[in-house]
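Now produce a polypeptide, keeping tokens residue-aligned:
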Amino acid sequence: MSEAGKPALKLLQGGGGGEWDYAPQVALEIQLAAAADPQIAVTLVPILETAERGETVWDESVVKYPMGLNQEVGELIVNIGRDKYRLYFAEPSGFPGVLLALKFGYKYGHDWKKMQNDDIREAGDRLTLWMKQQRKS
């Protein structure tokens, strides 16, 4: 268990890290967001590298895991000024060393909570699809 009695992230936090794999749509989501705001890439790359090394600090301003709507999905928090971006990810069981980027989202407006919940659901769906595809390989 990690701090505050939450389940530990095996790879991100002291587990030796892992390598990122990307659900097909998430790479495009990140590329489009970074094209619109280059600061996204500047901010996101060190976060991803820290996770790969297994050095992510358990801090609610950096990572949240698990998410209430899906216990297999976490979020890496990428705040740039007032903009709130989230990279939803998983450490899929049965796939040692894999950090799976699932969904890159942006929280804004009055309906940010609904948007967040939709993003978590979509991340969960992408995780399920990714796992099915991996088992077929």
